[in-house]
Amino acid sequence: MSGFQSWLGSATGTLIRRQAAAQVGAVLPNLFGYHAIQLGGYGGEDLLGTSRISHHCHAQHGPCCTASPGSDLICDPASLPFAADSVDVILLPHVLEFSADPHQVLREAERTLIGEGHLLILGFNPWSWFGLWRLLSGWRGAMPWAGRFYGLTRLKDWLMLLGFEVIGREYFFYRLPVRSPALSRRLGFLERLGALFWRRAGGVYLVVAKKRVECMIPLRTQWRLRRRVIAAGVVEPSLRRVRNGDG
Description:
Blueprint: H1 2-7, H2 11-27, E1 35-39, E2 55-60, E3 73-74, E4 87-93, H3 102-112, E5 113-124, H4 129-137, H5 152-161, E6 164-172, H6 181-186, H7 189-197, E7 204-211, H8 219-243
């Protein structure tokens, strides 16, 4: 992940960081609770900055990761050091692309989140210029092309199996991921065109999912309710027969 963090300092990476911060920043003020976690650094960007939640935790991850300024702990995203049902918001900025087991990362997020808690995922869109660049450059092992890009349809299927409901999604960054800052600036017009005509072709997406919890009536409560129904349907007719002189 150190290579990816370095890439976030490039011309394209810096633009993506800023746009991602704006997208996440528009969502967080509407999410409430007590604890929010950003799992993974983002080029020094504090993506939780606009959250109204009082306690923020910034966790670094990766086998070669060292604590950076602003980080609170180092942990494995596939085995989070948090109690079950204890966190209100979890943010995964490009964590799944570089994880050996993305399913386990999502399972850990589900375990850790409270019922009705929110999971925010930033990911690279394989059906975009980024997907094409990965096909051309992924074999070189360079970041971020060495990662695995997951389409939104597959990600939604994974989330649904874990009991999440996708309640929001946004695509952004429509220009080509070129190295030259000057060329990247000249391609800025693609942002406007992409947002108007091919929204789902943005290079990056933000998914907002809510952990749903089914309301279940305890068996004891069901049995008590059944006894009341039996009493109302059997005892009362018997009393009516006695009152009418049938008994």
